[in-house]
Amino acid sequence: MTQAEQLITDNLDVWTSAVQTKSTAGRGKSKKLELYGIKKLRELILELAVRGLLVPQDPNDEPASELLKKIAAEKAQLVKEGKIKKQKALPVIEEDEKPSDLPDIWEAVRLGEVNHWAIGSGFPKKEQGLENEAILFSKVSDMNLPGNEKFLQTTTNTVSEETATKLKLKVHPPGTVFFPKIGGAISTNKRRIIVKPTAIDNNCLGLTPTSGITTEYLYLYMLSVDLADYQAGTSVPALSQAVLSNIVFGLPPLAEQTRIVAKVNELMTLCDQLEQQQETSITAHQTLVKTLLDALTTASERDGFTAAWARIADHFDTLFTTEWSIDQLKQTILQLAVMGKLAPQDPNDEPASELLKKIAAEKAQLVKDGKIKKQKPLPPIEENEKPFELSDGWEWARLNEMVSQLGDGLHGTPQYDDRGEYFFVNGNNLRDGEIVIKPETKRVNEQEFQKYRKNLTDRTVLVSINGTLGNVGFYDNELVVLGKSACYFNLGAGASKRFIKILIESPYYLSYAFENATGSTIKNLGLKAMNNFPVALPPKKEQNRIIAKVDQLMALCGQLKAKLNTAQTTQLQLADAIAEQAIS
Questions:
Q1: Is residue 261 part of a domain?
Q2: pLDDT of residue 160
Q3: Which residues, including other chains, have CB under 8 Å from residue 206's CB and lie 6 or more apart?
Q4: pLDDT tens digits for 115-129?
Q5: Residue 257 located in a structural domain
Q6: What is the Rg, in whole angstroms, of the alpha carbon atoms belonging to the chain?
Q7: CB 404 within 8 A of CB 432
Q8: Does residue 427 sit within a domain?
Q9: Order of all β-strands in the sheet with 157-159
């Protein structure tokens, strides 16, 4: 076992424990864990392989210098037979271009020196023979087909030999390694080995190895290369044969190429096993966390709730060890808050029914004063709209019953003015109780503001209702014009804005919002659904107790996440350090 291989196997705990969170955009989206350590280990294995540090050298192997002589003779013969064109000589490799510390029997070569280029062809029309034929025709998208993970086994389209000859398609032999040539796919690690006669389209480029380099070694070398480092262009990046031909790398003897490939395959299988074990462990952990937290929100009796919480408290340190689990805990806290299970009830509190009477009287006075229009009464809340039992002193009420006004912003585009003092904001400007003005937020002038202004007050709550659902902001005298993806409502006296924020951010509201939203890719929650939202309203004093408890527990979650981030950063740095040590 080489020193580098020993370093890999002795630090398996580092590779498996270095994990980081990979976020996806949008509220309500899952956060997946990236197995960073194992990803780093795969990269390290390839790096060690192509540097000659993975397997020991054998002085009895025919040196790579002899391979280069045979390659030169092979190419000369192919030119003589008219099978390839004579290539321009590549520049002599300077000392500063050579990979450092190459083994003695290796040779520094240019990529174009030991391979033939496999060029793409224009894609044939369907009527020219694209069905159940002998020759595969591959696009970049074909690399993603099932079974095509390493070897290109199938393609969506095929052509006949007759069509290939007629259209002068460039058909490449088995053993060719190809990859994306244009666009964002360059930065992916897509490399495929051709196993049948195959044409590739103009978005692909390939290399057919000479007798001096095996297909499998060429494949793993190309996996070790970040092709994005060699692309040119910004709007449509592309790879150039001339640039790639000049890449310098270390060529091992043929026998060592075979040994390297075998060792890489062995270690990659180990990585697959570690990955599977980690994913199984992560899935089991997530299932356990979700089951125990769900028991809190579904417990109908106080004794059941107490028992469920005791199970969590006994294993708190082992349950909440990932960003995902802490986020689940935060969501459970919000859900318990709006169900009346987070703070104690006080029989001396004025019940929420009295609060609703006061809000109704306040709205009636505003109608009488001509400040708002009289609203049509909403239907009573049906039993099937009540997902949980209310605590004593609480009342069910539709959101409309708790507000004096509810509306959305401008359905259209105002006239922008880069020198205007007012900002045109939408749902994506709302975050954690604030209206966030971004560098790209458009401006409007006083005239546009007066045309589209809404009755925003210190009682106004804003909620995103288009695209991302459930972002919350409070109005604080910002100079803004609202767009249609921001809904606003003015709460009646006695209803706390901060309690409503907890409610809107809870799983209860988000479940309601997604069930009642229209649209498949871009969700839109209409004002009717907002008006009809059934709110479980606590007494005013209990709202304040709930807010205080949520603040306390969210601070705890923040501390947990900070400790986790510190530990994760240490593990990632350790994985990086061991990888660097192995290479050096």
A1: no
A2: 87
A3: 117, 118, 119, 172, 176, 177, 178, 179, 194, 200
A4: 999 999 987 766 444
A5: no
A6: 33
A7: no
A8: yes
A9: 157-159, 135-138, 198-200, 171-172
